[in-house]
Every structure is written in structure tokens, then in C-alpha cells.
Amino acid sequence: MMTDGNRHRATELVQAYYDAFNRGDWAAMLSFVSDDVDHDLNQGPRESGRAAFSAFLERMNASYREQLRDVVLTVSEDGRRVGAEYVVHGEYHHSDEGLPEAKGQTYVLPGGAFFDIRDGRIARVTNYYNLQDWIDQVSR
After folding, report:
1. How many other C-beta atoms can be found within 10 angstroms of the C-beta atom of residue 40?
2. Which of 37, 41, 106, 108 has a 20 to 30 Å separation from 86 between CA atoms?
3. Which CATH architecture does the domain made up of 4-138 adopt?
């Protein structure tokens, strides 16, 4: 069913999720996802559940400080799917397993995400960025 209200609510939900990300407010981010959220890691496995998503946020926070800028959202007519494009501005402050050594390197790279919305919450997040571009930037 097509309604502008559903599209508006989906836009507000994903924008609030990204606003929480930019504030480093992991509790707020977790409040926007479903208990059984599926999280497709960039070039990695799917993790499911709010606890796994929380653990992912903790791992990210331990190694990276990031801000997402120039966020553009595209929402399906029924409000059940959202696409996001953004530019990641980050600092790599603590080495992440299997990646180059962290020395406070900064990076800027485009990224994107896809969301499924169900019952007013984010039920799936699929993230993408060019890992080789990131590695090249932090290896300089």
C-alpha cells in the first residue's frame, strides 16, 4: 500500500538512526532496530539479532571514530525499503584484527546502505564501502 505517511516515517527512522550514529549514541541506534535485525557486514557475513548488532557497534567504536556526511535517502513508495548514500569521514585509532596497523590515520570514502523496515523498526541493514579504497587510504 502506497502512502506518503509510510515513506515519511521510514525516512525519519533512518535519519534518526544516522543522527544517533554521528553522536556515537549506540543505545539510541539499538532502539531503532528490531530484536531479530539482520546486519550484512561489508564484505563479511550476515549477523542476526540485536545482541550481535550491539557487539558490532562495540567493535567499531573500539577502532574507529566516524561521521557520515552528505547523507541522501531514497525510500520505496510503501516505506518498507530505504537506500542511503553518504560520505564517511573517519579516524582509525586502534588496530582492527586482520587490517593494517592503526596510527590515527584519517580517511574519507563514499558508502551506502540498504534497509528493510518492518513494524516501525529497522529489520535489515546491509552496508557497503570500498574496502580496498579504505586500506589504501590508511596504508599511506
Report:
1. 16
2. 37
3. Roll (3.10)
Give the span between the Cα atoms of 22 and 77, in whole angstroms.
Answer: 27
Answer whether 0.90 is exceeded by the pTM: yes
Which tens digits make up the pLDDT trace of 85-114?
Answer: 999 999 999 999 999 999 999 999 999 999
Report how far residue 80's alpha carbon sits from residue 100's, in angstroms, rounded to the nearest whole number: 38
The rounded distance, in Å, linking the Cα atoms of 80 and 121 is 10
3-state per-residue secondary structure call for 36-98: EEEEECCCCCEEECHHHHHHHHHHHHHHEEEEEEEEEEEECCCCCEEEEEEEEEEEECCCCCC
